[in-house]
Amino acid sequence: MISPTRTPFRRASALAVGGALALGGAFVAAAPAHAVPNETYYVYSTAGFATADGPRYSDGGVEVKLYDLDTEDLVGTTTTSPYGDWSFSDVVDGDYVLVFTSKDYWYPADDEELLVTVEDAEPEVEEVLLTPYPELGGGAVTVTGNPVLGETLTATVGAYTGANNASVTPDSVEYSWGYSRGESGDSIEGATGLSVVVPEEAVGAHIGLSAIAEKDGYSPTITGGGPEALVSAPQKPAAPAPVADSSGLAAFLAANYAAEFSSEAVGLPKGSLSSDSTYTAKMDWYSGDSFVDVYAYSSPRLVGTFPVVDGVVQVTLTPAILAMIGSGSHTLVYVGQSSGGVQSVALEISAALASTGADITAPLIGGSVLLVLGGVLLVARRRKATKA
């Protein structure tokens, strides 16, 4: 009797052109007689796997073994692709047993074997029923420490339980620290213990520990946890301007995939900005940073270093800053202090009105009023003299 190391067998059927297999039943006592084969065939499947509830999906990395039913010799071993398909080549006429082995599933759950007969065609095995092993209980992850660049975080993993809530010691537990920004993230290289020093690539992201526990008879069980707060970094002194002048700016922006936003896209008014007014530019920031340096080109001038708050960099452009930048067409360049991420905004600043001294508008208006009043009085006196 063939004996797999982990999983039960199943007797099922696989159709071949010119012959059919029947479902169920016990093993035949001996393989049917076959003539010496003149050809060899493929035994294969493109259907993948399905759960007992019916939804079908692919499952890669499952070990598939083909045994000779009569001799119980191992004929071949392969592994399913990410799409769940597999195949054996150079299979001669005869009866065979397929065995599927995985850490996650039984193949299938009813203790029968999958029998395949090869006669004069290449049999295709239809989809195989799989039943997941149960996961372990427990294993809660708790992380202590401040999620700040350079700080140390420490994790603890709670006890595990198995069937009937009994205490279970996993055969192995693997730890991995990583970070996530929702749609993006990664593991932290070399961080496979219960503590980690917060790295710069995790700034602006959630950081946490994943624990993968394995126990014979259970599916690998993944638990995880981490601080609720995003990883932050202290403000650094502003870095030098990324390029010396505007002649190299286009190439720098292109190399950093930084499309230039219009002024309206960041909440500035359309057209030129008045040097006498104050404006606020709000740039959505998706790179992992706590602070961003902002420069103005054509000739680079540091506008300032600004915090990232709720995913937004808010830059206040005061009359003093606008005067420092100067009139004309300019580009604001944003560079993240931790990620090095880059964004840019085009803006136009109008020239300030010239000022030549004290404001004489009020005296001129006052003089005009007195002049008119004097004229009225003069006319009134002449009329009075004429009547006299």
From TrEMBL:
Keywords, alphabetical: Cell wall, Membrane, Peptidoglycan-anchor, Secreted, Signal, Transmembrane, Transmembrane helix
Sorted alphabetically, which SUPFAM superfamilies does this protein's record hold?
Answer: Cna protein B-type domain
The leader peptide range reads 1-35
For the Gram-positive cocci surface proteins LPxTG domain, which residue ranges apply?
353-388
Species classification: Bacteria, Bacillati, Actinomycetota, Actinomycetes, Micrococcales
Any single biological process term in GO? carbohydrate metabolic process
Instruction: Kindly give the InterPro entries that the UniProt entry links to this protein.
Output: Ig-like_fold, LPXTG_anchor
Q: Where are the transmembrane segments?
A: 360-380
Protein name in UniProt: Gram-positive cocci surface proteins LPxTG domain-containing protein
